[in-house]
Amino acid sequence: MENYQSTEKLESFMNNLGFPSLRIHTSLNHFDFTRRARRILVIGPMGAGKTEYTTRVWRDSKVARTKSALVAASTATGAADRRNVFFVRPGLDTRQFHNCPPGSLPYRGGIEDLGGKISGAADSFALEALFKEHPEVGTWIIDEAAFFDERLVYLMAKESDERGVIFICPTLVLNFRRETFNATAKLLLEQATDIFPLSAYCDHPDCLSDGYFSYRYYLVDNIECPALYFDPLLIIGQTDLRHSEYEPNYCTRCEKHHLLPGKRYTYMALKPLGNLASAGDIAPLRNELAAIQAGSHTSKLFTMFEDYYLRGEKRNETMMNSLKVAAIAEKALLYLYTEANLISTDQLLSLVNELQLDRQYIRLRLADCHRSVAAL
Ligand SMILES: [Zn+2]
Fold first, then answer.
1. Four-way CATH pick for 36-198: 3.50.50.60, 3.40.190.10, 3.40.50.300, 1.20.272.10
2. From 43, 113, 284, 352, which residue has the greatest number of CB atoms within 10 Å?
3. What is the pLDDT, as a whole number, of residue 11?
């Protein structure tokens, strides 16, 4: 499973066995429990096998633990033996564990019984409590580590430096905008000692390339509608396929098939309108949101898309489908309020009232990022 064996060493080994010089790919060795104090990032989009990677570490640990005390000398630092593996998921959400026996982990290849060495942790403080509860554990698998608070990253550095503990973090690092997921993901990349990038096949039916990007799309009337760039960053929802104007789906795509309409609009038009509102001139933004809400072809959004995706060099009619989804004006406003911080709460409320925007949708998306506006 490990990459450390150098290509030259492997090549000379193969030559000694009488093999000619062939193209040698990186071997998948078993997990090395003797190397202490590592923070391993396993990155890749959904379907790339991140969970499968960790179940292999678990299975290797079962073999490693059957070895003699002589081995323990090289796998333990103090009380922590790196052959003792524990799996932690962010939050108390056990949705993914449905139809799966307690204490076990489902992945695409099946279900792995972790003998109860699995737990949820709401935040880095809960995680720290788990470390104290299980001083014998020397390898911690922190699933979707980017969903934890930033403090996690420094906590892992401290634990691995002081107690030789290994951390394995299977996580997304890019969001659907192909940007670093969040501040925790940035710090994880900065503080990692090893990185294993995994890819999955691009999900597009006409493509067999490697996919590295998470693609967000909606299915409206069974038509693929790519999410707009200013779609809310975090939408908490179901993992099964949704046919909905409101609830997105995710899959993995290569660069060519990862469509991201509206980035240009966001920076060329939407943010400048937010800047004007921030300076007190809210009318231009109100007009644009009203036009979007009415589905009018006079909105800057529509005219820019028309120029670019119907007439321009980058003609791509699927991009136009992104305008078939619901709550686009709400999304634009939420972007300016929660991400760009250009709209005050009073301005948000007055626009919601004047344009009779979908309060329920706005409330839900604010809740997704742990925010609320009382008067909504
Ligand atoms: Zn593709």
1. 3.40.50.300
2. 43
3. 72
